[in-house]
Amino acid sequence: MASVRPLAELESTPHASVFPNREPKTIRLELEAGEEIPRHTHPGRGIVLYVLEGRLELQLDAESYELTADDVARFDGDQDISPRAIEDSTALIVLAKRADEG
Predict the structure, then answer these.
(1) Is 31 exposed, middle or buried (0-12, 13-18, 19+ CB in 10 A)?
(2) How do residues 66-82 score in pLDDT, each as one tens digit?
(3) Which of 9, 24, 73, 83 could form a disulfide with 96 if both were Cys (CB 3.0 to 4.6 A apart)?
(4) How far apart are CA 13 and CA 77, in angstroms?
(5) Is residue 2 part of a domain?
């Protein structure tokens, strides 16, 4: 059976769990211009971040990437991660357990 949820109905900010308590962990991230998430990690996870709308600066360790609507970034959750909205932004983030983590 499939699970289907409209992203627009998820109102928690900045994070809304699309499918609570399900793997892979899937989050809708909504940030206002200038808002950022402090540096953090997701050990043992591979991450895909898809920008739905807006523009984000994604800090990964010492590297910085500017992402706009329709950009997709894939990276290792062991890195220090900090997204910051350059303009009001919405992204979909999938955090999958790495196969080598069991």
Answers:
(1) buried
(2) 999 999 999 999 999 99
(3) 24
(4) 21
(5) no
The residue type at 75: F
Supply 29's token pair. Answer: 């991230």
- Looking at residue 19, which CATH number applies to its domain? 2.60.120.10
Contact 44, 76 (CB under 8 A): no
Mean pLDDT of 10-26: 87
Helix, strand, coil shares, percent, the chain, to 5: 5, 55, 40
DSSP string, 33-76: TT-BPPSB--TTEEEEEEEEEEEEEEEETTEEEEEETT-EEEEE
Q: How many domains does the chain have?
A: 1
Q: pTM higher than 0.85, yes or no?
A: yes
If we measure between CA atoms, which residue out of 52, 54, 37 comes closest to residue 89? 54
